[in-house]
Design brief:
Helix 2 packs parallel to helix 4 and helix 3 packs antiparallel against helix 4. The protein folds into three domains: 61 residues; 104 residues, Alpha-Beta Complex (Aldehyde Oxidoreductase, domain 3); 157 residues, MoaB/Mog-like domain (Molybdenum Cofactor Biosythetic Enzyme, Chain A). The protein is elongated. It contains ten helices and 20 strands. It is an alpha+beta fold and 337 residues long.
Length: 337
């Protein structure tokens, strides 16, 4: 990349054709644009416009061998790292905006994003991993850091990014859920919790197909689990479980329906006494009282993952512990609107 200066009326502007303007150029008042913006490609039309402004100084950068213009470099890199559920806007002012094509959960490989950004060749700006996005929401901005990028630098940056997409949108696909509550949940509280959970699930397009208050014994719980599974429930929410009890009947009953306990407790507040289990593709969430009655809690954080069929694992919860003080950080991750 070579920087050159041309003075209108003195230098031959045709020698600048194909170069990129590197500094904004204000023009005297008159017909045509008020200024020429940095990043503009010098072409015949621009030379004609500038000819009307003798004395103006045009600052440009000219490509050397094997260099790619900023917008093209941004687009090439975007195509290499953008995954499913996203679309790339055409380059504008050197950058590409990446937008969601569907409602879902944005997944971002944050460590790889940081590795790319440390090189300084490409600038990656993304929304948070786990954020709920709607169709057309901005998920990321990708911009080459210079007006001309050496192809070799762009290729090295792509290798640093790795072979997999750095971000994607997991669409919301789960549609049915059940709610089971033990005898610790009083009837009035059960009705309130049912209404709250129905509204929360409904905001993601999920129907609550059953809500039952059941005895705290293993046979009754197993029967209720099986009924939910037979009804096609993809998410089963449980109230009244005590995860600190090694023999909690809601946890013990999991084995009878061939469900595997994924984790007991979570490094998130409110929600430390949360538990997760899976019976094939159906997820069970053991809820503490703070998750039942509309208080901001771990359920608001992990439910979108479940609706998008993204695994809620010990590793995911461990990552969510960073920023897990929800009263301080939830607004950056919550569903908009």
């Amino acid at each position: 990349m070579i920087r050159r200066t041309f003075t209108v009326g003195i230098d031959d502007l045709t020698a600048a054709i194909g170069a990129l303007v590197c500094r904004d150029l204000p023009l005297a008042t008159g017909p045509g644009p008020a200024s020429i913006r940095r990043g503009t490609v010098v072409d015949d039309a621009l030379c004609t416009t500038l000819a009307k402004h003798p004395g103006a100084r045009l600052e440009v950068v000219v490509s050397e061998h094997d260099e790619v213009e900023q917008g093209e470099a941004s687009l090439r890199f975007a195509r290499a790292i953008v995954g499913d559920g996203l679309t790339i806007d055409p380059p504008h002012q050197g950058q590409c905006v990446v937008r969601a094509t569907t409602a879902g959960v944005l997944r971002v490989c944050s460590r790889q994003v940081a590795r790319v950004n440390r090189r300084g060749t490409i600038l990656l700006v993304t929304a948070l991993d786990g954020r709920v996005v709607e169709k057309a929401d901005t998920a990321a901005i990708i911009k080459a850091a210079q007006l001309w990028t050496p192809v070799a630098d762009l290729e090295r940056c792509r290798r640093v990014a790795g072979p997999r997409p750095l971000f994607r949108v997991a669409p919301f696909t789960a549609r049915l859920a059940g709610f089971l509550a033990g005898s610790r949940i009083r009837p009035a509280n059960f009705a309130m919790a049912t209404e709250n959970l129905r509204g929360l699930l409904g905001s993601f397009g999920v129907d609550l197909v059953t809500a039952q208050r059941i005895p705290d014994d293993v046979p009754s719980i197993v029967a209720a689990y099986r009924q939910c599974l037979d009804q096609g429930a993809e998410i089963i929410l449980i109230g009244g479980s005590i995860v600190l009890d090694p023999q909690d009947p809601f946890v013990v009953a999991l084995e009878e329906v061939r469900a595997t306990l994924e984790c007991r407790g979570a490094p998130i507040d409110p929600g430390t006494m949360f538990w997760v289990a899976y019976a094939r593709s159906t997820v069970f969430f053991g809820l503490a009282s703070c998750e039942l009655y509309g208080r901001r809690s771990i359920l608001d954080l992990v439910l979108p993952y479940a609706v998008a069929r993204e695994p809620v694992t010990q590793a995911l919860l461990a990552d969510l512990g960073y920023g897990g003080l929800l009263d301080q950080t939830f607004s950056a991750r919550r569903k908009s609107g």
